[in-house]
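BUG: 3D viewer hangs when loading the predicted structure for this chain

Environment: internal workstation, default settings.
Expected: structure renders.
Actual: progress bar stalls at 90%.

Input used:
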Amino acid sequence: MKILYFSQFYTPESIAPSFRATEHSKIWSKMGHDVTVFTGYPNYPSGRIFEGYIPKLMSKESIDGVNVIRSKLVAVPNTSVIKRLENALSYFFFGLFNIIFNKRKIGKEFDVVLGTSGVVFNALLAQIYSFFYRIPFIFEIRDITYVQMQATGKRKDSLAVKGMKMLELFLCKKASKIVVVTNGFKKSLILDGVQEEKIEVITNGVDVKPLKNVPNSREKFVLSYFGTLGISQDIVNTFAYGKVIADLTDDFEYLIIGEGAQRKEAEEQSEKSENFFIHLLPGMSAENLEPYYCHTQMSVITLRKSENFKHTIPSKLFQIMGRGIAVLFIGPDGEAADIIRKYHAGIVLTDSTEEDLVKLKNFFADNGWKDEVNQMGRNGRKAVEEHYLRTALAKRYIDVMDSVRSK
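Structure tokens produced before the viewer hung:
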């Protein structure tokens, strides 16, 4: 099968949509499929084009057997909504120019066009390309943007939310199939009028690697957060949770690695004397991040406690569980919390901050907390091995694409 996959983010960028697109593409290529990825020049999270790349209107390279087409964009740091919009729109407009005027370099003999959203303009590019060449279009939804906007404070009746909802539902209508990453997203789309038979649920996942460390051999207890420091995550709110653990443990560090809109506030708050246990590092590549995973016993997943986030399952959940690390979940009571509870893979805090802190204090005041944390890590890894392996999920994805191609 010849697959054209539109994803604004791709390796070597260290961000969830890059991980999903990169790993799926690599697996499909190893299965014998001809995979081409249309993407931007790598610049996340620094907002600077990575060393070794000279930005042109369009260029090509091959990575792990995957054909990668790089399209020009404006690289800016991920520090505000305006800058993220500037980055996304520049990618869209240069991408549109390329698919109109450089179409021969891209090719058109594809069996299916796949467009991923997070960044909805990327999926719009894919739909436009599929329309030009009458190729089946699959719309992959990692986040329902109009729902996420409401979760971070936008009013349901605002022009921005209404416009985004109109655009995303338009893409749903035009798609031959829609792939979502949670059951809740499927339910939400059905309520908004999308045909149920068009929607397939293929969750995120990870292929587990051999464990390099034995948890019981670690002396310092390291709680970590690796990822975007954005409005949705509200990382500064987690400092109070870290303080509870610091007060109850002898040698503790809360390690935070990432970039985003809340980075500056996090830096300011971490310099306060009461937050002595916080160690803040800049965002880095997945390869450079790996040693830090090896030295962490529990990792934070945090989302604002909004009903609009209850169907969100952050992809890092499977990255953490697959590494045998316990999860500290702070967020709404929904699908992510249910997974952690189901497999006893971590601590779930979904109540008020005051109630959460009491629950956390009671856990770490118990003498057996270290053994419990280690067991949570083992439970999470087992759950990934049995239900969330990336390779198995990628093969299911091929079945969805094949069903569209054969029509």
